[in-house]
Design a protein that fits this description.
Elements: H1 7-28, H2 38-59, H3 64-75, H4 80-86, H5 96-117, H6 127-142, H7 150-164, H8 176-199, H9 207-238, E1 242-245, E2 248-251, H10 265-279, H11 285-293
Antiparallel strand pairs: 1-2
Length: 299
Amino acid sequence: MADWFSPAEMFLATVVLAILTAAIVIWQSPRARGTTLIAPVVWSLVSIIAIVLAEWMGWQGTDGGRLAALRFSAAVTTFCPPMAVLGARRPQHLAWQWIVISLWVVLALPAAEACLVRRQASLQLHDARGWFLWGLILVGAGNWLLTRYWLAALAFAGAQVLLLTEHLPGWRSAMGPTGTFLAVFLTAIGALAVAWQNCRPLMIRSRDDRLWLDFRNSFGIVWGVRLQQRINASSHRYDWPIVLEWSGFGVRNDRPNVSPTILSDEHSEQLELAFQTMLRRFVDESWIRRRADATVSTH
């Protein structure tokens, strides 16, 4: 691809795709209003800007060793948004951003050493660090594979591989500006996939199902499973006839003749109180109200 386009054309195409991606992120950002996902949205924009700035430095003729360090430092910012989601529970979600920053510093440290201390002509990572990057890529993508955003998760993971391909064991192929362009292209595809899914109505049975599915899709498997476990533990403790499955609320196996839509007033109030109390660790009342009042489609 580098033979097809001049460096200026490649840089311009990368910038255009980055602007498109940032515009989609900003367009979809109101969905995070009232949640602890504001920080991941901000980190996403920071990552896009960092990648574009690194490519701009390359276009300006920055020497190879320093440019490799800048590109790597920008590439590892892509781990900040998913890491921010893993700490997106009140009240520690704000303090968690220091953990996110610390992760970036640790990941970018080899670039700083190569550029400032060793003054190497190229950045070379030890295999242990490379395998750690593979692990972060898999953890980030895996958190949304069982949600409606699975396609975006795969596209984003592919973008990370392209950005870091020179440093990943089992791959190690220097792609330069071409890799950055393809990575930003995949990121734009992922952002469009998220926007497309958000425009599609959810096929749901009840208000609580809508709250659950929106939460599960937004926060991913880690927090989804955690909330699911706590609801089901409460169900067994208080003898509710329902269970929270990955697709929504259903009937407990030991209560096959009970409909989840027909609960006693007492059970219904207890379930709603427990469910929304747990949700409020991640979202506020306005988010719950917007989902509860939204028009829903039924099977």
